[in-house]
């Protein structure tokens, strides 16, 4: 009888552990963020803006932000930032060679800051960020959208 009880306990523990693992997410937020950063780094198309832009910075951070900064040849700087949990949807306009990725937020959640502009420094809010991309396939775009969706589902507001 003791042997039967021991086997029953062992089976119960294994079954319960399997049940818990079935509903856990093996990937972490850091992995999704890393996937997004890699996609943006691999596919960013500097040539679409190279006549106006001196350099750029595009970062997806582990603390939950997407930051895009462009430094213009005339000295002007544009900075866009939004919290990843505010991501709503995305559209891609172009083809697999070149296009623009529109990242939409739930509301006016994109911080836009402009420095050294003719009209002075300006702080405003927007609903989208536009990122030029190149050499991107539909599967890559789907992966970007899936990573955003997973981050939004896993982060707490």
From TrEMBL:
Residues 1-22 form the signal peptide. Keywords: Signal. This is Uncharacterized protein. It comes from Pedobacter rhizosphaerae.
